[in-house]
Write a structure and sequence with these properties.
Layout (H helix, E strand, L loop, with lengths): L1 H14 L9 H18 L3 H10 L2 H9 L9 H10 L4 H12 L16 H12 L3 H14 L26 H7 L11 H25 L4
Helix pairs in contact: 1-3, 2-3, 2-7, 3-6, 3-7, 5-6, 7-10, 8-10
C-alpha cells in the first residue's frame, strides 16, 4: 500500500492543494490513517480501503468547480483515471469505485444505509470520525467560511428529527452540528469506530452547548 500511497499523494497534493473547505489533503491523510487503523481490527482488503480513503472526496473538487452539489458517484470516472495513472491493480479498481460511491450513506438519511460490505463501512466510519471531535469542529467552521454559511442563525428552527440531505446546505454551522454531526456517533458501523466516536461526540456536544451560552451572553 505504501507504494501506491506515495504515488497518490503526489497527485493529490496538486489536486487538493487549494481546497479551502476542510476536505483538503490533510483530511484525506487523516481518513487514510483512521481507515487503516479500523481495518486492522475489523478486517477487509487493506489496499482497497487505503486507496478509497485517499480518493473519497474527489467529488468535492468537482463541486467547488461547478458551484453545485456533486454526488460521489459522479466522480468515479475521475477516480478511476487517477487509479490507472498510478498503476493500481486493475482487478481492484471496481472495488475502490464502489466504496467511494457509497461512502456518504447515513442511517439518519432518507434512504438509510444500503451497502454493508466491511470496506464501505470502514470508509464511512473513518470519514465520519474526522467530522467530529476537535478536528470536526475546525473543519465545520472552515466549510462554513468557504461557503458563506454563518456560525449561527437562531431565527431558523432546528430540525432534530428530519432526514438528513447531503445535497442541501444547512443555514448555519450550528444547524449542521445538530442535523448531522451530533448524529454520527449513533451511525457508526464498526466496534472500533463506535469506541472512538464516543469521546469525540462528547467533545462537540460540550462545544455546542458552550457556544450557545456565549452567544446568548451568559456568563
Amino acid at each position: 500500500m505504501e507504494e501506491f500511497k506515495q504515488k497518490l499523494e503526489h497527485l493529490l497534493k496538486t489536486m487538493f492543494g487549494n481546497e479551502p473547505s476542510g476536505h483538503d489533503l490533510y483530511h484525506l491523510q487523516r481518513v487514510y490513517r483512521m481507515a487503516l487503523h479500523i481495518q486492522e481490527h475489523e478486517g477487509g482488503d487493506r489496499l482497497v480501503v487505503g486507496a478509497s480513503a485517499l480518493l473519497h472526496d474527489v467529488h468535492r473538487l468537482m463541486q467547488n468547480e461547478s458551484g453545485v452539489y456533486v454526488h460521489p458517484k459522479d466522480s468515479l470516472a475521475k477516480v478511476g483515471e487517477v487509479l490507472k495513472q498510478v498503476g493500481f491493480p486493475h482487478r481492484k479498481i471496481g472495488a475502490v469505485l464502489r466504496y467511494v460511491e457509497f461512502h456518504e450513506e447515513y442511517c439518519f438519511a432518507e434512504k438509510g444505509k444500503t451497502v454493508h460490505d466491511i470496506e464501505t463501512l470502514i470508509l464511512q466510519d473513518a470519514d465520519n470520525l474526522d467530522a467530529i471531535g476537535a478536528i470536526g469542529i475546525g473543519r465545520t467552521f472552515a466549510f462554513g467560511g468557504a461557503h458563506g454559511i454563518p456560525p449561527w442563525n437562531p431565527e431558523i428552527p432546528l430540525d432534530l428529527d428530519g432526514a438528513y440531505d447531503e445535497s442541501t446546505e444547512d443555514p448555519s454551522v450550528i444547524h449542521h452540528f445538530h442535523h448531522k454531526l451530533l448524529r454520527l456517533r449513533d451511525s457508526m458501523n464498526t466496534n472500533t469506530g463506535r469506541a472512538i466516536a464516543g469521546e469525540r461526540h462528547q467533545y462537540i456536544e460540550s462545544f455546542v452547548e458552550r457556544f450557545l451560552k456565549e452567544w446568548a451572553g451568559e456568563v
